[in-house]
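Supplementary Note 3. Input sequence used for the single-chain structure prediction.
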Amino acid sequence: MNYLIDTHTFIWAVFDPDRLGTKAKTILQDPDHIIHVSAVSFWEISLKYAIGKLELFNILPDQFPEVARRMEFEILNLIPQEAATFYKLSKVGHQDPFDRMIIWQAIQQKMQLISKDKRFRLYKDKGLKLVW
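The predicted structure, written as discrete structure tokens, is reproduced below.
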């Protein structure tokens, strides 16, 4: 099965796996699952690090794609059609553009999204399949 992980899920998987929910941890550890990290997450990490909203230890933002590959996560690029149709995702109370694009990618790619963010539930009726 294909899964997309939210940025915080990726960061926790790298730095603090104990913060992951039991179901999320089980999915991430199952070799039969294909886990994707969006290029949008790398952008979010880089931006938040640059403005001081994210503290990283012994790693810089530009190292995260290689970290993802070492963890055997697939990198999901943002394709032009996803970017061009993003306007179709209604704002249901979630304003963060990074989260909304990851939600849109999960819907468009028909992947389950692994996230603890409770606000993501608002997108279930838009086609989002959420796991934690």
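The mean pLDDT is 94. The chain has six helices and five strands.
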